[in-house]
Write a structure and sequence with these properties.
Elements (H helix, E strand, L loop, with lengths): L5 H4 L5 H25 L4 H19 L11 H24 L6 H5 L3 H21 L2 H16 L14 H9 L8 H23 L1 H13 L5 H17 L2 H7 L1 H11 L3 H14 L9 H9 L4 H30 L10 H8 L3 H12 L4 H16 L9 H35 L1 H13 L3 H16 L4 H11 L1 H6 L4 H11 L11 H10 L3 H11 L2 H11 L10 H23 L8 H15 L3 H29 L1
Helix pairs in contact: 2-3, 2-9, 2-20, 3-4, 3-20, 4-6, 6-7, 6-8, 6-20, 7-20, 9-15, 9-19, 9-20, 10-11, 10-17, 11-12, 11-13, 11-14, 11-16, 12-14, 12-26, 13-14, 14-16, 14-26, 14-27, 15-23, 16-28, 16-29, 18-19, 20-23, 21-22, 22-23, 23-25, 25-28, 26-27, 29-30, 29-31, 30-31
């Protein structure tokens, strides 16, 4: 993420009115989004350009081109920022006012004003992405723009015929296939509403209530603060929409307690990073990519949630198990001061009402955009029910502002992802990539999945998770479908693999963020996070090779067998890696648990049942080993 420090910049006298302007525009954007979410009066043709122009204006106001207030270029730079904001408003108005029903632009080309407005919007969107997200995403966007312009000069294997700038602008800006395509559309609707819902959770104190509940529920057990961290991050990470932001926000509370209990700084950072990243795949409110998946696969969001429950539980069972095994090996106990669960619940039970309402409406298949808007309103009303939780107008306005500002990097990244998707569609690059994967995999599904996993990891080093998923979904999902994988299963596997970059060295942004809070070594923290998060690699394999996803012609018996054997696999791998179950493993026990993992992946029901039986045998064997050790030491 970009690291502009708005507080430092605000010390300049010019910035005080800018901050007020930023507050006003951001608050107005959230109000506009809420109105659109409830009424849905405006068509996507007009709504998306208005949303993006609003976002671009906020980006140029919040992230100045010259960061140093001591620089002689600071004021000229700020003037340029205001000029770019005005240009974005003008260009957005031209896009909204464009005659989409006419054919003159198809016969004679775009009007000069429309052309330059389109050119400006494309490159200013990439610049806004650079400022709010980082250089990596912006550079990738530029590379794709250069590819569509000069692809005719490349080798035949990756060449395209080359397109004029006028044709690019016409396709990217004045259709719904590029800049204003599905990625931005989902970001501007469902994602915005749930980011705003998350902002109100923080503004109203619901986030602290969820963390307190987690500590009260798990804090007394062995390694309690770490287990509470996993529970809290699962809930908050799902709502916040950002693993990195969650690792910092929740980690500020959980990491010091883990270190105080006895976890090493790198372990504490790894636990927080893996739990926060897992929040993105945790129903009922998953990360932004889940809403986009629903749109790309034409699947109701409710169905996405339902098939994600068991895989998400498997992931968090895996993380929780590693946390427990670490605590056992370190000889850690729970926290001494036990929070009063009854008192916490008595003080904050009304906060569960809007959460229950949101879950219920999502399960009834209401529009996620409408549900997010209703949830935000219900959260404010719930706070007003009791005197100790009531908030004022300032708190509500602050929630509206924070929600809009949290959306800046998301909307900017999705708009740039839309440009990339548009290039893929305009040039046929997606078909070329599909043919490349199929050719290299030579019909081997496991090799195709390995290629997709590598691509996800590489893309994730520079792109936000949602952007990485969008690009891979467009380019790689057709290849998996060609190999016989169901469309939704392929997208779900790609969605999970796209999360891995947050916790995998050498660039693991969530782990690095948590390491900063823990004052730990970044790369060592990333290694710990990767160990705890290995289910991000294993579960996608299970989605493809077993009946873990209850879709298509999967029977209930097959689904139950797949769920149990998958549980055996993630537990066996954790035991084998940590060399511990009830007690330290013997060499034979460790080999037995390690053997369970490949057996589960073998596509045969009998083999899966054998693997589950071996896991039970290993558990009973190690339990007997523990009892014998207890007798010897008695």
């Amino acid at each position: 993420m970009a690291t502009h420090n708005a507080d430092i910049v605000a010390q300049h006298p010019l910035e005080r009115p800018v901050m007020w302007l930023l507050f006003t525009i951001a608050t107005a954007l959230s109000i506009f989004q809420l109105w659109q979410g409830v009424s849905a009066d405006m068509s996507a043709t007009y709504f998306r350009p208005i949303h993006l122009s609003w976002i671009l204006v906020l980006v140029f106001l919040k992230y100045p081109s010259i960061k140093s207030i001591d620089s002689p270029l600071y004021i000229p730079g700020r003037i340029v920022d205001f000029g770019l904001s005005v240009f974005c408003i003008w260009a957005g108005w031209l896009v909204v006012d464009f005659d989409y029903t006419g054919i003159d632009h198809l016969l004679n080309g775009l009007h000069q004003f429309d052309y330059w407005a389109g050119v400006g919007l494309l490159f200013l969107t990439i610049e806004a992405t650079r400022r709010s997200v980082g250089w990596e995403m912006a550079i990738i966007g530029l590379i794709f723009m250069l590819y569509v312009l000069f692809g005719n000069l490349l080798p035949d294997a990756i060449a395209n015929r080359g397109f004029s700038m006028e044709r690019i602008v016409r396709f990217q800006v004045f259709t719904s296939e590029g800049l204003y395509g599905a990625p931005l559309g989902i970001a501007a609707t469902a994602v915005f509403m749930f980011v705003l819902f998350g902002a109100f959770l923080e503004a109203t104190g619901v986030g602290k209530f969820l963390i307190d509940i987690s500590y009260a529920a798990a804090g007394k057990y062995r390694g309690g603060p770490a287990k509470a961290c996993v529970l809290a991050s699962a809930g908050m990470g799902s709502i916040s929409g950002s693993a990195i932001a969650n690792a910092v926000a929740v980690g500020a509370l959980t990491i010091p307690m883990m270190k105080k209990l006895g976890y090493k700084p790198e372990q504490a950072a790894g636990i927080e990073a893996s739990a926060s990243t897992g929040g993105q795949i945790m129903p009922p409110i998953m990360g932004a990519g889940a809403f986009i998946m629903a749109d790309l696969t034409n699947t109701p969001y409710r169905d996405i949630v339902l098939i994600s429950i068991v895989p998400a539980i498997l992931y968090f069972v895996s993380v929780m198990l590693y946390v427990h095994l670490m605590a056992c090996k370190l000889g850690l106990k729970g926290i001494d001061e036990k929070p009063n669960l009854k008192q916490i619940f008595a003080d904050g039970f009304h906060f569960l009402l809007p959460l229950g309402l949101v879950i219920g409406l999502l399960m009834l298949n209401y529009s996620p955009t409408l549900v997010g808007a209703i949830g935000s309103g219900a959260m404010i009303l719930a706070c007003m029910l009791r005197p100790h939780s009531r908030i004022g107008v300032r708190d509500i306005l602050n929630g509206l502002k924070c929600g809009a500002l949290m959306m800046l990097p998301i909307s900017a990244a999705c708009a740039t992802a839309g440009i990339i998707v548009g290039v893929i569609g305009q040039t046929g690059l997606g078909l070329q990539f599909t043919e490349f994967v199929l050719s290299l995999a030579d019909g081997q599904l496991w090799l195709a999945l390995a290629l997709v996993a590598c691509a996800a990891l590489i893309l994730g080093m520079g792109l936000p998770v949602t952007a990485a998923y969008i690009i891979l979904a467009v380019m790689a999902a057709p290849a998996l479908e060609e190999l016989g994988i169901a469309l939704l299963a392929g997208h779900m596997a790609i969605f999970w693999l796209s999360q891995t970059s947050n916790v995998t060295p050498p660039v693991a942004l969530a782990a690095f963020a948590a390491a900063g809070v823990a004052n730990a070594h970044p790369q060592k923290s990333a290694v710990e996070a990767l160990k705890l998060s290995n289910a991000f690699f294993l579960v996608p394999l299970l989605m493809v090779y077993s009946d873990l996803l209850f879709i298509g012609d999967v029977t209930m018996t097959g689904f139950i067998i797949a769920s149990l054997t998958s549980l055996a696999m993630v537990c066996s791998l954790a035991f084998a890696i940590e060399n511990y179950a009830f007690t330290y493993l013997t060499v034979a026990q460790r080999l037995l648990f390690a053997a369970v993992v490949p057996l589960v992946l073998y596509e045969d029901t009998t083999t899966s049942v054998i693997a589950f039986a071996l896991w039970l045998v290993g558990m009973a064997w190690n339990r007997q080993t523990e009892k014998r050790e207890m007798v010897r030491t008695a």
